[in-house]
Structure formats: C-alpha cells, structure tokens
Amino acid sequence: MTATTATEVDDPHRLGRDGRQRPPRALRVLLPAVLVVIWFIAAGIGGPYFGRIDEVSSNDQASFLPANADATLVGSRFIDFVGDSQIPAIVIVSSDAALDGPTLQTLTDKVSSLADLEGVDATSPLIPSEDGLGAQAFVPLSTDSDIGDVVSTIRDTLREDLPEGVVAHVTGPAGFTADLTEAFAGIDGILLLVALGAVLIILLLVYRAVLLPFLVLATSLFALCVALLVNWWLAKADILTLNGQTQGILFILVIGATTDYSLLYTSRYAEELRRHQSRHVATFAALKGSFEPILASGGTVIAGLLCLLLSDLSSNKSLGPVASIGIVFAMLAALSLLPAMLYLLGRTAFWPRRPLFDADRSAETQMNAGPYAAAGRFITRRPRATWIVCALLLAAGAAFVPTLKADGVPASELVLGTSDARDGQTALAAHFPGGSGDPANVLVYQAQLQEVAEVLLASDGVSSLSVLSADSPSGSAPVTADGVQPLGPPGTPAPEPTVSDGQILLQATLTDAADTAEAESTVRALRADLGDTAMVGGTTAVAIDTKDTSIRDRNVIIPVVLVVILVILMLLLRSVLAPVLLIATTVLSFGTAMGTAAIVFNHILKLPGADPSVPLYGFVFLVALGIDYNIFLMTRVREESLTHGTRQGIVRGLAVTGGVITSAGIVLAATFSALAVLPILFLLQLAFIVAFGVLLDTFVVRTLLVPALTYDIGPAIWWPKKLHIDRFGRHGFDGDEPPAH
Q: Is residue 733 within a helix (H) or strand (E), and if so which, with residue range?
C-alpha cells in the first residue's frame, strides 16, 4: 500500500460508517446540490414556454401531408390565384320561418361589418337559400392571424342582437380549425393537472411517504419543462413540427416515463439503504443497478419512436424525435436529479417508512414474500396450463381486431361534444349543396379548361363549377358546359380566368359536405377520370391523401418497429428464442387491446370510427412501452438464472420486479388516461388503447403469460446459448464469464 493510500484509509473522516472509503464531504454535498440547481434553472427557463406553444404549433391537416401529394401541390399554388394566403370561413344563418326583406337586410349589414375585424380580408354578399330559410356568406381569413381568436370574434359579433328566431354559425375550414384549437386549449392546463394529480395519488399509495411522491413528481415535471424548451426551439427553427396532438402525447409520455424510471430507481435505492449504512454507497449501488435497465428501456422506446421518421406524414414523422427528446430528458432526470435529491435527503425522503440499515436481512425472505412470489409459486405448479389459458383469452380478444373501423372519420367528428362548426355544417347542408363554401380545387392548364369542365360537370357529385378570376367582383366566374359565363346582362363579356404559369384554378362545389364519405368517393372518381390532366385539391382531397398516407405508414412502420425492437432484445438478452417469444406475446397483447377497443368504440361508446393512425400510434406506444416491462423482468431473470438456474431465476425475477412493474404500469395507464379529458376523438381512442393495453401487459402478460411460458420451456429459452453448471456448482452461459465463486 502506498503512503498516500495509507493516509487516506487511516483518516477516520474519509471512512463511512460501514468502513468504506468515501469522497470528501464538500464533494459529496456540492455535486448533488449543483445537479439540483442546474435542473431548477433549466426547468425555470422552460416552464414559461407552456404558454407559448401556439407560437410554433399548427393544427392545419394539410401542412402534414407529403410535398408530392396532389392536395399539397394544389394548396401551395392557391395563393398564386388569390393573391395572399387565406383560409375560408362560412357564415350560415338560418331560421324556422322564411327570412323576410328587413331581416335579410339586418343580416347583410351585420355580415358586411365583419370586414372591419382584424384578420378578416373581406366578406362576400349574403346569399339567400332557395328555400328562403337560410343565407350564407364567405369570409376569407388571413392565415397570418390567430384563426381561433378571429373566428371567436366573428361568432360573438354575429350573435349580438340577432333577429328573433335566427341562428348563426361559423363553419368551413376556419370554423373547424377554431373548434379544434379550442379543444386543444386545455393541454397545458387541465391535461397537466389531471395527469399530475393521478400520478400523485398513485405515488402516495405506492410509497406511503410524505416527501418521496413530491420528489418523483418534481422530477417528472422538470424533465417535461426542459424537453418542452428544447422542442420549442427546434420547432421555432422549423426543424420539428408541433401540433396539439403531438404536444399532448409529449406531456403524457414524459410524465409517465419519468415516473416509471423513478419508481425503478427509488425501489433500488431503498433496497441499497437497507444493505448499506452510508448514503453515498447506497446511491452509487442504486445507480449501478438502475442505470442499465433504465438506459435499455428508454433506448428501446426511443428506437421505436424514431421508426416514425419513416412516415410520409409530417405529424407522424415529427412525433418520433419530439417524443424521443422527451424520453431522453426523462432518463436524465431519473438518473441525475432524483438521485441527487434523494442523496441530499437520505432516509428522510422515505419518512415515515424509512428503510433501516440491516446488513443481515435475508434476501430469501424478500424472494418468498408478497403476491408476486405467490404468483411464481402458482406458475411452478401449472406452467403449461397457465400460459395456454392466458394465450387463448388474449387471442379471443384479438379476434375482434377486424371489426375496428379505422378507415378515417369526418373532420366534423374530430371534436367531441358541442361544435359550432359541426352545427353550422348541418345547417348549411339543410339549405345549400353540402359542399357549398368548401369546394374541390382543380388545377389545370388553361388550354384544357373546357375538357376538364365537361368531366367535372358530368359528375353527379358536383353541384356547380366556377373558375377563379381577378376580373370578377366576387373573385370567381361560373363555368358551364358552354364555358366561362358572364356576370352581367346578355352581351357582357365573361371575366377572364386568372392564369399562373399557364394554369387556372377551377372550384367544384360538391353536392355532399366536404368531409363526408360521399364527397371522398366523388373526388376519388374525379381523380380517376381526369388522370394526369388535372390535380384535385381542397379539404376533401386533403382528407383522402392523409388517410391513404396514414395507411401506407401503418403498413411500413409496424414491421420495422418489430424488427428494431427484436434486434435490441437479442443484443440485450444475448438470445434468439427469448426475444422472439417476448415480441410474440407483446403483439398478442396489442391485438387484444385493439380487439377490445373495437368492442368499446363500436358498441359501447358508439364512436363514428377511428383515424388510420390510431392503430399505428397504439402499436408504437404499446410495443415500445410493453417491451420496457419485458426488459425489467427478463434482465433480472437472466441475472438470477446465473446463480439459481433458469426456472428458479424466473420465479425469483418475478418476485423482485413484480411490484415495480405493476406500479409503473398503473402510473403509465393513469397518465395516458388523462388524454381523455381533452374533447378530441383521436386522443380519447389512444388513451383507451394504451391504458388498457399497459394494464393488460402489467397484470396478465408480464405476471402470468411470459413467466409461465418461460418456465415451461426452461433453459432452452436462452437458445442458442446454453446455461451450464461448472464443477464449482456455478451456473453460466456458454461464452460468458461465470460469476465469481
């Protein structure tokens, strides 16, 4: 021993109470204090950005489409014909009695006054319906304005001193955008409060401590603040795309994942405090034991999320890196901020159930106590019957997957509850052609105007046709089979269409509302009839292209996610058979969750359907997060197998990890359930699928199916490696270094 070492060891101030050498006191206090301060500063900077997300987010569905989609190309050219970027709002007024002259004049004056509002570019004349019970006007809004605020102001203005018996609505693309924006308004308020409140209640029940639940909650909230800060600036630089849907998922995912990782660390830290009297020794031991499973779990989730980069939809593609950034900070917070706070507080953090130092505590007692030890003993008696019954029950639920209606929903159904835009669309369809005010835009070369017009007018789904024209006071001129029609008395020349790069823009008013299945059928038929002659855009075309792209994404990304996670599991477990079986059980669990969702959505909630991206999002989250629990379980099983053999390793691994996995699953299910507080159909469906699927994984798959199946297979589960016993009685895998004797 060197002189320096002897001095260090002989110094009683450098030894812990367990006789181990410890760092200088200044370093032991300063380092965790600095970590806490850094996180406090970063969270303090990121916190105010909760109120600024609308500055960098967009809920415009068309902006998510691939650049080469017809709807995107037509939409990008629209400004060339109208002079500036606009989004149309449709004002519809209706009454049970005929609108007489004085009433129409009052309404006309009211609509004309809307042009003075900020964000309103102009208003069209009020157009009465043929039945005399309604009238409509087109109000183009500047896309540079806050659409939600402008539409809200228009609605308030219209409803002031309306004639008796008259009802006014604002619908059209601007109306639906405003309703969607209002529905997402609770993301940084009620959603966060519900999610954090649910997590706090669960943590209080799990820990039965005063301080610890708030420390874990603070860790989750700080991770979210920093993740939001980074994502905000990336969105500001146009590197990422943020929308209300992505924002809500980010919030829930970060809170849930950080809490899960924190549960794993605090469980290990409490275990080490019972083994070691010194806080710093217990801290380093807990970090050593938690680092690999947390890193592996987070890395698996990130790998699954980044597969979304293969999507052609910008909203899907952006969610991958946005959520991955959240997971990165969830891991960092759980491995730095929480350990630092717990180190500074020591056993006091667990008060009143402080873990007491007891070096002689029997590990076997821990292995044989609790419900998961009992589950392990049950499995040892009936392993094959257990996994077969579980598999059959899950398969029965998965059999309903084909009944899930995930082929898209109308835009009017995206917002749950009341929707002024939806009510307005109903009123509009009652008095005008269903697609009035929201036409299909057809981009065509000027020389082919008549040829294309004949195809459009021949369609039963097209009510009327016009062409954009700067010469026309209304901005457009009617088109018939005889060509562009004059707007004045006979002999008046017809307005010249506006031409840009040799092309003109026709607008076909559909007989059905733009977001209906009938309108989609009409647009698909028009595209087929027109071929390469013209491109069809507009709201209906955007919905079609979004749906088709979502289906393509689902078919491409799901197999890739499976392969990526399978490879990660093979590397982690250093086996082939075990990862394949784990993936198979996870896919079966996902199928059961989707089949159950079909029953609930179709027959209990009677929802209108689901977006094609719902199964994709559900798969990515359930598989990635479900594999988390596989990692927690099987890494411990492998560790125990090296000492006790495979079958005993399974029983012991389940006994040790069961409580942590259950707590983590309940927390994750609760946080995703919080998405249901927002009146958005997509988020309600995603909340149910993920919450139910996680609970299914937690209580059935990870507690019974996987342990029973693994126990039944025995040592062969590690194929192609073999678990052997050396001459000292030690278990080990072929090619691995056996544990020290």
A: strand 731-733
Please give the distance of CA 704 from its chain centroid, rounded to a whole number. Answer: 29
Q: Which residue has the tokens 């999002």?
A: 617
Q: What's the pLDDT score for residue 390?
A: 94
Q: Where are the alpha helices (DSSP H) in 445-516?
A: 449-457
Tokens of 343: 């180190």
Query: Which residues on adjacent β-strands are paired with residue 89?
Result: 139
Report how far apart, in Å, the C-alpha atoms of 530 and of each of 459, 462, 485, 498, 525 are: 12, 14, 23, 21, 9
How far from 646 is each of 473, 650, 711, 713, CA to CA, in Å?
Answer: 82, 6, 8, 10
Query: What burial class does residue 214 get, using C-beta atoms within 10 Å of its C-beta: 0-12 exposed, 13-18 middle, 19+ buried?
Result: middle
Strand partners, 731: 725
DSSP state of 714: G
What is the amino acid identity at position 257? A
The mean per-residue pLDDT over the stretch 383-397 comes to 93
Determine the 3-state secondary structure of 126 from DSSP: coil
Residue 327 to residue 358: CA distance in whole angstroms = 35
Most confident of 203-207, 482-486, 520-524, 554-558: 520-524
The two counts, helices (H) then strands (E), for the chain are 24, 12
pLDDT in tens, 640-686: 777 777 788 888 888 877 888 888 889 889 988 888 888 888 889 99
**Dihedral sign of CA atoms 533, 535, 536, 538 in order:** negative
> Of 698, 596, 626, 611, which Cα lies nearest the Cα of 657?
698
DSSP letters of 191-256?
A: IHHHHHHHHHHHHHHHH--SSHHHHHHHHHHHHHHHHHHHHHHHHHTTSS-B-HHHHHHHHHHHHH
Q: Are 599 and 399 in contact (CB under 8 A)?
A: no
CA angle, 18 then 20 then 24, to 5°: 115
Query: How far is the C-alpha of 370 from the C-alpha of 560, rounded, in Å?
Result: 39
Provide the pairing of β-strand 534-537 with 476-480: unpaired
Cβ within 8 Å of residue 503, ≥6 positions away? 77, 443, 444, 445, 446
Q: Judge contact between 612 and 551, C-beta under 8 A.
A: yes
User: What phi and psi, each to the nearest 5 degrees, are found at residue 594?
Assistant: -70, -40
Closest among 674, 584, 666, 574 to 627, alpha carbons compared = 584
Q: Please check whether residue 504 is in contact with residue 449, taking contact to mean a CB–CB distance below 8 angstroms.
A: yes
Is the predicted pLDDT of residue 38 greater than 90, yes or no? yes
Kindly tell me if the per-residue pLDDT of 174 is higher than 50. yes
CA-closest candidate to residue 452, choices 539, 513, 527 = 527
pLDDT at 344 over 60: yes
Amino acid letter for position 732? G
User: What's the token pair of residue 609?
Assistant: 């359907």
**CB 180, CB 415: distance < 8 Å:** yes
Are 541 and 74 within 8 A, CB to CB? yes
β-pair type (483-484, 723-725):
unpaired
Taking the C-alpha atoms of residue 430 and residue 412, their distance in angstroms, rounded to an integer, is: 16
